[in-house]
Write a structure and sequence with these properties.
single chain; 153 residues; alpha+beta; 2 domains; three-stranded antiparallel sheet; two-stranded antiparallel ribbon; 6 helices; 5 strands; elongated
């Protein structure tokens, strides 16, 4: 199954009211290194292995992990799905004027970068990716978990 084509980010920058359609110019003039590094950590997170699970390092907390293990009946896929999902709306301050398409664009980019990151960091494991958006979820949302046969033998 092929991925949908991403919209042109220049058109999204225009829709969001940017003074330029060049992302590099916008970042240089209005961005800062702190935000750029934070964004890179979201786009290319570290995924760690713990008890045969693969979880985003920034979301890992042993107590929370064991809570989800217990509440899901030790369902590895459910635990990973909960700990590895992200709602794009939760990453940024609310902007009522922003078009849904801009948030969906970010989610689609995130989906692609997470696939690449997991492929590089855990090449012997298999993963399933899920994308949902309104009205099925709280805005554009990306999920990832190992397939049933994801754990190498």
């Amino acid at each position: 199954m092929s991925q949908p084509e991403l919209p042109n980010p220049a058109a999204l920058l225009t829709a969001l009211g940017a003074w330029t359609t060049r992302a590099t110019d916008l970042l240089y003039n209005e961005g800062n290194l702190l935000h750029a590094v934070a964004l890179s950590a979201i786009l290319w997170p570290r995924f760690i292995e713990f008890e045969e699970h693969v979880i985003r390092e920034d979301r890992f907390d042993p107590e929370n992990f064991h809570h989800w293990q217990e509440s899901t009946g030790q369902n590895r896929q459910a635990v990973e799905s909960v700990l590895n999902h992200v709602h794009i709306y939760d990453l940024l301050p609310s902007n009522a004027e922003a078009p849904l398409e801009a948030y969906e664009y970010l989610a689609q980019v995130l989906l692609r970068t997470w696939k690449a990151a997991l492929g590089e960091q855990h090449p012997t494991r298999q993963f399933e990716f899920h994308y949902a958006t309104e009205p099925d979820d709280y805005g554009p949302t990306v999920y990832v978990w190992q397939t049933l046969s994801g754990v190498p033998s």
